[in-house]
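From the methods appendix. Each design record in this collection lists the tokenized structure first, followed by the designed amino acid sequence. Records were kept in a plain field format so they could be parsed without special tools. The example shown here is representative of the layout used throughout.

RECORD:
FOLD TOKENS (264 positions):
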């Protein structure tokens, strides 16, 4: 009989942010990932060690092929690393079976993708609470109402996705990701399908989720303007962590990226 995975601690709802030196809620140690075998192997991650603090909004940036999406997938348990480990809230993902990983992702992680992935026949409210109902969990109506207020969705709850703008659909997807109070939310290019104005609104709501709802968000993006909404940026290059910066402006990020661009 397969034992249940350790339960990651739930984030408390607080307006304060974790101190920069606090214990990370997600930690990758010597993480490597190769695709293919022998002489055909391609290294996507090369001994990456990095932590992500609770109640912080962190972005991962890097040029195409730097390994940023692979890192996110390994952190979230969507891919198994070739070597190294990932710990989320005390759970070592390398020690979990596929069934246990599925349970952890369902109950303790949230996901926001470039595609909204809403069920077209359901209303916004039904999409937000879908995971709880599928998992047989009680819907915390008070928490969902708070999410709806923060994300400004109160007048859209009975609308179906086709009746919502792209930004509204992504806000519904964010509310769905937060509805079960996940330990961490992983966002993969969440503004990739949106125009700059709408994308900026979505990013402001993601930051509000951290600062007002006490969530932890790790986001992959290629957009310096998007990364400027985060508390911290981790830069990858050739599968390794090259640098990081805190509380960046768009200009700070462009300056960091500029030497890499002129060298290619």
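DESIGN:
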């Amino acid at each position: 009989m397969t034992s249940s995975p350790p339960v990651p601690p739930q984030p408390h709802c607080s307006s304060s942010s974790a101190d920069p030196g606090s214990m990370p809620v997600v930690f990758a140690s010597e993480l490597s990932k190769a695709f293919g075998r022998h002489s055909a192997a391609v290294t996507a991650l090369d001994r990456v060690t990095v932590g992500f603090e609770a109640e912080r909004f962190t972005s991962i940036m890097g040029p195409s092929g730097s390994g940023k999406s692979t890192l996110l997938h390994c952190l979230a348990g969507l891919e198994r690393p070739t070597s190294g480990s990932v710990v989320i809230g005390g759970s070592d993902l390398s020690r979990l079976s596929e069934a246990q990983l599925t349970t952890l992702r369902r109950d303790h992680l949230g996901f926001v993708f470039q595609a909204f992935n809403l069920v077209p026949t359901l209303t916004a409210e039904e999409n937000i609470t879908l995971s709880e109902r599928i998992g047989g969990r009680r819907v915390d109506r008070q928490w969902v109402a708070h999410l709806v207020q923060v994300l400004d969705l109160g007048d859209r709850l009975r609308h179906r996705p086709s009746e919502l703008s792209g930004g509204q659909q992504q806000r519904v997807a964010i509310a769905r990701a937060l509805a079960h109070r996940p330990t961490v939310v992983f966002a993969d290019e969440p503004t990739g399908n949106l125009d700059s104005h709408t994308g900026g609104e979505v990013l402001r709501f993601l930051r509000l989720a951290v600062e007002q709802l006490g969530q932890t968000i790790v986001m992959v993006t290629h957009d310096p303007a998007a990364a400027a909404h985060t508390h911290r940026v981790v830069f990858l290059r050739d599968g390794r962590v090259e640098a990081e910066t805190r509380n960046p402006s768009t200009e700070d990020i462009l300056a960091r990226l500029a030497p890499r661009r002129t060298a290619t």
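APPENDIX NOTE: The first helix runs from residue 68 to 75.
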